[in-house]
Amino acid sequence: MLTLAYQSLGVVYGDLSISPLYVYKTTFSGKLSLHEDDEEIFGVLSFIFWTFTLVALFKYIFIVMSADDNGEGGTFALYSLLCRHAKLSILPNQEAADEELSSYVTEGPTDTSQSSALKLFFDKHENFRKGLLLFVLLGTCMAISDGILTPAISVLSAVSGIKLKITELHENYIVVISCVILVGLFSLQHHGTHRVAFMFAPIVTAWLLCISGIGVYNIFQWNPCIFHALSPAYMWKFLRTTGVEGWVSLGGVVLSITGVEAMFANLGHFSPYSIKIAFTCLVYPSLVLAYMGEAAYLSKHHEDIQRSFYKAIPEAVFWPVFIVATFAAVVGSQAVISATFSMISQCCALNCFPCVKVVHTSSKIYGQIYIPEANWMLMCLCLAVTIGLRDTNMMGHAYGLAVTTVMFVTTCLMALVMIIVWKKKILSSIAFLLFFGSIELLYVSASISKVPEGGWIALVLSLSFMAVMYIWNYGTMKKHQFDEENKVSMNRILTLGPSLGMVRVPGIGLVYTELVSGVPAVFGHFVTNLPAFHQVLVFVCVKSVQVPYVSENERLLISRVGAKEFGMFRCIVRYGYKDLRQENYNFENRLVSGLIQFVETEEECVLKPTPSKHTLMDSNQEDSLVHSLCDFQVMKSGNRHLEYSINKDESLQILKAKESGVAYILGHSYAKSKKSSTILKKFAIDFVYAFLSKNCRGPDVVLNVPHTSLLEVGMNMDTMSSLADSLKPSSNNIGCPPQNGSATIQDSHPPSIIASSDSTLGRHLAHRLVQIGVNDVFSVPGDFNLVLLDHIIAEPGLNNIGCCNELNAGYAADGYARARGVGVCIVTFTVGGLSVLNAIAGAYSENLPVLCIVGGPNTNDYGTNRILHHTIGLPDFSQELRCFQPVTCFQAVVSHLEDAHEQIDTAISTCLKESKPVYISISCNLPGIPHPSFSREPIPFAISPRLSNKMGLEVAVEATAAFLSKAVKPVLVGGPKLRVAKACDAFVVLADASGYAVAAMPSAKGLVPEHHPHFIGTYWGAVSTAFCAEIVESADAYLFAGPIFNDYSSVGYSLLIKREKAIVVNPDRVTIANGPSFGCILMKDFLEALAKRIKRNTTAYENYHRIYVPNGIPLKSQPNEPLRVNVMFNHIQKMLSGDTAVIAETGDSWFNCQKLKLPEGCGYEFQMQYGSIGWSVGATLGYAQSVPNKRVIACIGDGSFQVTCQDVSTMIRCGQKTIIFLINNGGYTIEVEIHDGPYNVIKNWNYKGLIDAMHNGEGNCWTTKVGTEEELIEAIETATGEKKECLCFIEVIVHKDDTSKELLEWGSRVCSANSRTPNPQ
Q: By the 8 A CB rule, do 335 and 12 touch?
């Protein structure tokens, strides 16, 4: 007991004990002034003493603490007592059997006429029951607000004392120090109350001894007559002298008892006697002495009223007391934090708060808990109050209003408890209410006057919490009411069984429901769509009872559903509002043990006049009763009871079913308001309740259901209007219950195969992606694709790369496809689809096979004329599809499982064959549903090879060879379609055989090997590499393999090539000069065949070699001379090797990177056709992910980088070692050269600082900023040396007019092409 009393100091009394820090300061913060006769100080002390004595000592310690609910305290504990004794329960599913629980104690004195009349009054008037609930919620929410305000005011008050010694310390530093302490406090909570108490108890003890000792010192030092203030007469004198100002100042006096409600709420963490001992023996006398000592000091130092506590500390002990005060302030917050955890846990159990994770932190004290979500929510709100207000006086006003409201609620509930529970006379209750209620109302009225000066914070916080609680309770009760009204008749289901082809499968099926009687409508929905259920079916109802705890041997309540041959049972799992719901500790064995005990004792129950329900009485038998079947056989001889059990046919059937596996069937009913509902109810249900339901912990998490054995069945509440509707077979494919493997139905009905739970659409798609060579998918989660992403993540061969936005996910898939041959991005419906559309259009223009997979609407929503979120507000869901049609080669909308297999495979094969993106929309409710069409191991994916027309191929090769043989100096030019035609190697074969000069179009750089002995450079018209254009345009024949001629690649249509000299080879067609044209000929086949027939001719290359002059070396920079772009790319050239790859962004990087000489094996990518600025960031992410053995070097301009920079953070998260050169020249350089204007100037960013913020100390990232050649050299050495395993970001500062000569020429020609006048009509 003494140990608990000692621990309680650290948890329960911390808040109460630190009140001296701010009571006098807040009381005298208004217009109240001090006079020479000290009546104000004596009056305030008198109010503090008698308030502390009457409320804290007499009311709470002597009276309220006796009204515990099986050891639990707090507002909800009092309400729980009233609910049990007066049938005020707000919980559904309450049964008479619940009253037989050992903790459901309602015995006591017989009802008096007054208590009976009060019970009858509440029973007849439902509105008063609802009003009482709202009243309780108000008190609870005000108490939760205390959990936010107490740490803020306590810590800030304590830390503020340092300003007395360090006067120049700015207020901002005080706030920062307070915030650091608060973050540390909340970070300690996961260690549990038990450990926290042992850490904090010595601090509070030392604090109480310090303030009491200082109080005694101040009394004798400054005013020994201060004891006179204990006379109540001084309270009357104070109010008479100060009038309204004195009344208003009482809002500060009430802060002296702020911790008493937390003391009551924390009752479950300790015992009532331990709390009473600690209070009466140490806390009460220490605080009284502290208040008296501070008043004595103030009586002689009126000028120190706003810093009296620290001023009253003797100089010699100031710093030790300051340190203890700071620690005590931290500890003081612990009381309300622990109390808040208790209250939120109770609210969850009583359906007044969304489900959250509750962790029990002590194996000895059952009530000690920790709630992670609540902890971090409290911390964020506490920091917001601290940073936002920065004023302890304003916090004190809010704090006082919250505390007084909670105390008044407790007083009112206690008055009801005295009549209904304790059966006291109504006069005693009224006397209690009038005496203590009048005191608290006095303080409430004073605190309300402070609402404009900070009190509004408590109102806003509490009303916000109260709205959430009431809406959650209202929605939950409406859902339960709906479930009750739409229960399904089991006879009806069994009658329809033959017509539905209903069969029973081996195993045990656990159907979770909120009902304690009847069959839930969701089960009828399930069996009409999948007419099969398990050999042993158990309807499991997990419910809360209006008691704090339910013992383990009373936890399960088992009964039979229907006739014995049905093999169906009901198991009600009961919890108290303080119990930990964690049934993963052998729940299946416990349940089977209970079922066996029930069936074996059922006959005895039938013979005796007892209810046909069975409570699991001996929890110690579960390990011996439920094991595998072979274990039972071994144990026969040693256990007669077990032998008797196995001889029971039904017991044996249950054990065999357990061996076949246990499946969990979880129903989801989604609430939706009626059309006739008011706007307020629609907002509450359709928005607030829906949002809370979506974001709280789901029932499968709360119940710890194994995911491998889980099947979820969903229904919209507005669609389940009647029993008949529930039993109509629908088009929805619900799938089958999960098993521990596939199962064959063995019953009197014809055999039917139930697909394995792994044979799902999501798993099939994931396998297909692996089979086509995809190891990484790029996604942005949204509510329509989350289940699909679960299956992607579950596939061992796939890695999900979460991107910052859909556009970058599409760009990443683009970059991935360039290296791997196919890329995948997964986004959500419409908002995600339309966001990724730009990237898909770019992939289409670049002939890249990208699978764009979109999570689509639920199958039940198609054709219903409903308007869904994430749409443009029309019931037509095809708007996204129509947008994708022009930029994809195939579109699949998967809304039925029957053809899903075919649609997915067709889409994938079309994507690979056409080398274009495809669009696949998959309804959000389909990925997790098994279907027979998805075999467990999908058949390996293969595409029928495309073949050339042999006769056409021979004719085309002959005609081309004849055409080229007449030429004197023919050349070969490779184009970007070499990739889509998979003809890069064939092009090299032709180049080797022909001896022609070999050039590459700009968009084919990286596809044509630049180490080839006859390579002459990039052909790009007027901006070609040196001497390349002269050779190409002077040739008398040129073969273009896979070209794309657009305004960019033709430099504003200014190429000097003639059609009659050209042979154009496309992926499936060859055109010679102005004709003829040969179709159905694959480029790869054509180039290989032509290499065997062509005559070798090296004239063009010899001419090139004859006139070629090597590029000049850029002028050497002077020391500290600003860096030039040509110097930078000269150094980048030296970095290139076969282990690197270059990504060039749209802009001047196009032209500078074109001049780089790529060594063998060095990759190169840029987006020439589509030219979307910002493409390179996402593409770099995808490309680097696809070739982890290469180091990617990305050259990006600042304007482009601002569009898509976010996913540099994803590169860091993925551990990529890319080197990014960010060229900072202050604008859109390429647009400046085409057409200049002020719109081409952008706001300059601190790009290095931006990446440092993304890095945030997580992962490997190194950043630098360079402005000279010396700095660049040093940065490159670091990036390729000690930081070679890091992502390196080098911001390069260059002049805004520093551009390549090629861009100047190209820009003027494109500008000329853009500004052509309209043709005459």
A: yes
Sign (positive/negative) of CA torsion 1248, 1254, 1257, 1258? negative
Per-residue confidence (pLDDT) for residue 129, from 0 to 100: 82
* C-alpha closest to that of 1083 among 1206, 983, 1218, 976: 983
Instruction: Please state, in angstroms and rounded to a whole number, the distance separating the CA atoms of residues 343 and 774.
Output: 50
- Residue 140 has what pLDDT? 87
> What DSSP designation does 756 have?
P
DSSP of 1218-1283: -EEEEEE-SB-HHHHHHS--GGGB-----HHHHHHHHHTTSS-EEEEEE-BHHHHHHHHHHHHTTT
pLDDT category at 240 given cuts 50, 70, 90 is: confident
Question: What does the pLDDT average to over 252-267?
Answer: 80
State the distance between the two ends of the chain, measured CA to CA, in whole angstroms. 102
User: Residue 746 has what pLDDT?
Assistant: 28
Tokens 């080197």, located at residue: 1219
pLDDT for the residue numbered 631: 35
- Please say whether the beta carbons of 791 and 782 come within 8 A: no
Residue 1001: name the closest of 842, 1141, 1169 by CA. 1169
pLDDT at 829: 94
Confidence of residue 838 (pLDDT cuts 50, 70, 90): very high
Q: Which residue has the tokens 């007892």?
A: 610
Whether the pLDDT of residue 633 is over 60: the answer is no
Both structure tokens of 725: 């509707």
* Average confidence (pLDDT) over 325-348: 77
Look at residue 486 and tell me whether its pLDDT is greater than 90: no
- Left, alpha or beta for 425 (phi > 0: left; psi -120 to 50: alpha)? beta
Q: How far apart are CA 540 and CA 569, in angstroms?
A: 9
Tokens 């049905």 -> residue: 566
Q: Position of tokens 């359709």?
A: 686
Percent of the chain with pLDDT over 90: 31
**Do residues 1042 and 1067 make contact, with C-beta atoms less than 8 angstroms apart?**
yes
| Among candidate residues 1014, 1019, 969, the one with its CA nearest the CA of residue 988 | 1014
Averaged over 626-647, what is the pLDDT? 38
pLDDT at 496 over 60: no
Residue 659 amino acid letter: E
Q: How many residues does the chain have?
A: 1321
Q: How far apart are CA 618 and CA 624, in angstroms?
A: 11
d(CA 1203, CA 538): 56
Say if residue 90's pLDDT is above 80.
Answer: no
Rounded CA gap, 444 and 436, in Å?
12
Q: Do 230 and 41 form a contact (C-beta atoms < 8 A)?
A: no
Instruction: Give the Cβ contact number of residue 966 at 10 Å.
Output: 9
Torsion, Cα 2 8 9 10, to 10 degrees, reads: 130
| C-alpha separations of 1188 from 593, 823, 1182, 1192, 1276 in Å | 54, 15, 10, 9, 20
- CA–CA distances in Å: residue 64 to residues 68, 429, 768: 8, 13, 66
Between strands 997-1000 and 1015-1018, the pairing is parallel
Query: What are the two backbone dihedrals, phi and then psi, of residue 57, each rounded to the nearest 5 degrees?
Result: -80, -60
Report the pLDDT value the prediction gives residue 89, as an integer from 0 to 100: 67
| Token output for 475 | 């929605």
How far, rounded to the nearest angstrom, does the alpha carbon of residue 150 sit from its chain's CA centroid? 29
What does residue 543 show for φ and ψ, rounded to 5 degrees?
Answer: -140, 160
**How much is the CA Rg of the chain, to the nearest whole Å?**
40
Say if strands 369-370 and 359-360 run parallel, antiparallel, or are unpaired.
antiparallel
Task: Specify the range with the lowest mean pLDDT, choosing from 106-115, 733-742, 955-964.
Answer: 733-742
Tens-place pLDDT, residues 348-368: 877 888 888 877 776 555 556
pLDDT band at 584 (very low <50, low <70, confident <90, very high): very low
